[in-house]
Amino acid sequence: MFAVGSLLLAGSLTSCVNYSGCGIGRVDDVVSEDLLGTYTGSEYGRLTFAPGGKLTYQDWEFSGGEYGKVSGAGKWSFGRGKEQDSVALGLDYPRTVEGGGTYGVTLFVAGSAGDLRLYDYLTDPDVCELNEFTHDSGA
Question: What SS3 class is residue 99?
């Protein structure tokens, strides 16, 4: 019985470590204004963060790309976490995508104020398959 409990504990610790892992940690010197600008995803999507929490997005894939590449507007906010910092997105999507609405996404922040990267898990966080958004130079 003890061996089974130990095995289960090890499995849950691995899961927790990977969820807050994948090379994504806190960024101490970052404030909301540092996020302003345009970021392009390694797999899909282009996001432009504007002052006042305004957001535009291009080439976003909803439901695994079922609706093609979608563009629109939305809102964003930066949050400080105990282990990770994140950007909450609210993407307003058109009626052609499941009748319209707002889609919530959390991107995790890594790097420094001068070299920020944003990450979205593409699959299970244990696998660490990420869509990495990098800041476009000169934007």
Answer: coil
Distances (CA, A) of 13 to 49, 52, 118: 35, 39, 25
Per-residue pLDDT tens digits for 33-81: 999 999 999 999 999 999 999 999 999 887 776 777 889 999 999 988 7
Cα separation, 73 vs 100, whole angstroms: 12
Distance between CA atoms of residues 129 and 58, nearest Å: 21
18 phi and psi angles, rounded to 5 deg: -65, -35
Q: What is the rounded distance in angstroms from the CA atom of residue 115 to the CA atom of residue 127?
A: 25
Cβ burial, residue 37 (10 Å; 0-12/13-18/19+): middle
